[in-house]
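User: quick one, fold this
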Amino acid sequence: MKYDDLIQELNTWEYDEKIFREYYFMEKIPKNISGFAARHSDHKKEVEWVQNPKKVNAHSREDAFIPQGYNVSLVKHPRYFPLFYHEHDFFEIIYVLSGTCTNSFRDSTEKLTAGDLCLIAPDVRHGILAVEDDSVILNILIRRSTFMDIFYNTVRDKTQISGFFIGNLYSREKIRYLLFRTKNDTVIRNYILDMYREQKTSDSFSDRIICSILTLFFVELTRRHGKNVSIPDNRRERTEQESEMLAYMMGNCSTVTLNELAEEFHFSVPYCSKLIKSISGKTFSNLLTEIRLQHGEQLLLSSQLSVEDISDRVGYKNPESFADLPAIQAAILETASRYVKVGGTLLYSTCTIRQEENADVVTAFLAKHSEFVLQPILPEWGGKWAESMVTLLPSDCNSDGFFLAKLQRVQEG
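Assistant:
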């Protein structure tokens, strides 16, 4: 589809929008309300929402809005839907394709016009209202892990988006949102329409293509509009200092010391230590440990490196000192489970015989996820293979030690 065709499609009125518009302009007297409900009796959910938007879930997890197997989802915000405050555990971009909308936060309201783009951090309470017939608002929903993947290798860039990313990982006072006024920038608009078009294609390649377009989109957004971005709370000056210090720690996490950081930024060691505590709420040592483990988790999720290689890269020369591996293994299992359909199978396997990384991780996962059950590994082989969790010792197969557990999703989470 051409861009004009996509825009025309997005301008088309959905039935729920017609319901919301009718209620918005209707005189709210009992007779009218009862007739309204009767006319739209086949759409009870929409009728209930428009009359009492507080019944919409105000705290949403990413799996409720981003389909399994996808990292990004583009959703058209319905015109005339009542303002309701909500928060969620994923990143969101609000883009105004045409018309206007307001985006309200706990203590401020931003009016957005065509071309405006608001990048909102997870767990930020906000509400959107679009009450013009020509308003077309696109919400781009991005899994937290995907946002991290995109920016983890660009944290050394001195850009506001990188600062936004770093701050939401490690700063105590997080930046709630960034606002870009892109006006009539068709390059930015077309990247968003390209993602929307690819989502409509919906084949086995679509998610990877959308993630690739999203990466290019952020690079172009930074290049074309990075100098004019608006930051709430007048935190620009402090944000830049925070970002540079945290980016330095992230980029040099395998070797950085407090003395080195203080020298790099021309601070005394005591002052640098206090500043890190002020920024992150953690001591230098605790923050560095968190950064190393976060980086280690990303490498485990996105590379084929061994635990020993990852340990070395993040600054643990002895893999045994990479003490929080169970937490990282649990994060990997949690992430992988999002992509399993009902009836699908998830095989959890490690190259260790440590119970903390094996059975304990699986047991803790199952305690939180009743939608998964254990299944025998290979029942037709008999013996230990008929069990749902198997530990292989070096003496069993003349190899390293291994662990396997087979889980099946039996219902939606």
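User: anything notable?
Assistant: The mean pLDDT is 86.
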